[in-house]
């Protein structure tokens, strides 16, 4: 594997705030997307998303190179659970999913020649694109969009809503409640998987078999879409944010660009050439 391009960007001006991470070794490459916190829980003063992404980056160094997708997910999950045990939180977090240290991840295994995906990341293999958008995020993005449209019709301006995102406030109770379906044993259309220290249902581990790819791009969902170069992906994001900073029309999400921020979310981009 040869790294062609890589980029890590924070939604704020400070990279130290970034909850995404990139990992590359002889056997694996990965992009890790720490889940945006919806609680006040902190792990060694870090947000749950950042704590998880840092822990997973370190754990990937110890992942046996011959691991299958299921074995890798179990290994990474056990590392997060060990942190809970050290803090005495393993029983508490069974029923408080929103407080868990959680992250989505997309991994390339050189030995298996596979892409493994848990949670809402994305990848581009030569000209083939894959993503893993959560249905609940699509639903809540649409509801937020509807609410913002009503606010505008009632006389508020885009800047008013950027200062106080009432659309985000409207869906926040459901964003918190959706965590009930995080790695849930109950299979329904709203269940989703993340690495959070508790068993990821097998159906939530996506495996893509590759046929002699020459280029692979792994990215977090901080990009609305990814292209074959970092510049193209950044330009596309830039145009979206210029035309739709609230992210409720051209590109619907559960949050927009807060005043003073650079984007709606942290982002990570890793471009590999496979030889």
Radius of gyration: 18 Å
Order of helices and strands: EEEHHEEEEHHHEEHE
- Span between N and C termini? 6 Å
Question: For the record, what is the CATH homologous superfamily label?
Answer: PPM-type phosphatase domain
Helix content: 25-40%
CATH architecture label name: 4-Layer Sandwich
Mean pLDDT: 95
Question: In one word, what is the shape?
Answer: globular
Give a short account of the largest sheet. Answer: 5 strands, antiparallel
Number of domains: 1
> How many extended strands?
10
What's the tally of helices?
6
Structural class, from secondary structure content? alpha+beta
CATH C-level name: Alpha Beta
Poorly predicted parts: none
Strand content: 15-25%
Strand order of the largest sheet: 1-10-9-6-7
CATH topology: Phosphatase 2c, domain 1
Features:
275 residues, alpha+beta, Phosphatase 2c, domain 1, five-stranded antiparallel beta sheet, 6 helices, globular
Folded structure, characterized:
The longest helix is centred in the first third of the chain and has 19 residues. The protein has one domain: Phosphatase 2c, domain 1. The protein has 275 residues and is of the alpha+beta class. Helix 1 packs across helix 2 and helix 3 runs antiparallel to helix 5. It contains six helices and ten strands.
């Amino acid at each position: 594997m040869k790294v062609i391009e890589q980029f890590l960007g924070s939604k704020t001006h400070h990279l130290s705030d970034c909850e995404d991470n990139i990992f590359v070794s002889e056997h694996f490459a990965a992009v890790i997307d720490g889940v945006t916190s919806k609680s006040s829980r902190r792990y060694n003063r870090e947000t749950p998303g950042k704590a998880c992404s840092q822990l997973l980056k370190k754990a990937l160094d110890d992942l046996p190179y011959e691991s299958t997708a299921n074995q890798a997910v179990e290994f990474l999950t056990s590392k997060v659970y060990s942190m809970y045990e050290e803090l005495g939180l393993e029983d508490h977090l069974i029923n408080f999913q929103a407080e868990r240290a959680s992250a989505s991840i997309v991994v390339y295994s050189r030995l298996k020649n596979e892409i493994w995906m848990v949670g809402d990341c994305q990848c581009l293999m030569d000209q083939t694109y894959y993503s893993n958008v959560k249905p609940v995020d699509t639903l809540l993005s649409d509801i937020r969009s509807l609410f913002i449209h009503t606010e505008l019709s009632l006389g508020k301006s885009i800047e008013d809503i950027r200062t106080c995102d009432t659309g985000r406030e409207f869906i926040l109770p459901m964003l918190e409640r959706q965590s009930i379906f995080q790695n849930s044993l109950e299979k329904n259309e709203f269940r989703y998987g993340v690495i959070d220290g508790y068993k990821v249902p097998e159906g939530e581990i996506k495996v893509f078999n590759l046929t002699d790819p020459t280029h692979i791009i792994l990215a977090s969902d901080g990009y609305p879409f990814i292209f074959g170069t970092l510049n193209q992906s950044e330009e596309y994001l830039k145009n979206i944010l210029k035309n739709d900073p609230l992210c409720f029309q051209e590109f619907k999400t559960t949050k927009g660009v807060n005043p003073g921020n650079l984007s709606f979310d942290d982002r990570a981009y890793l471009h590999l050439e496979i030889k």
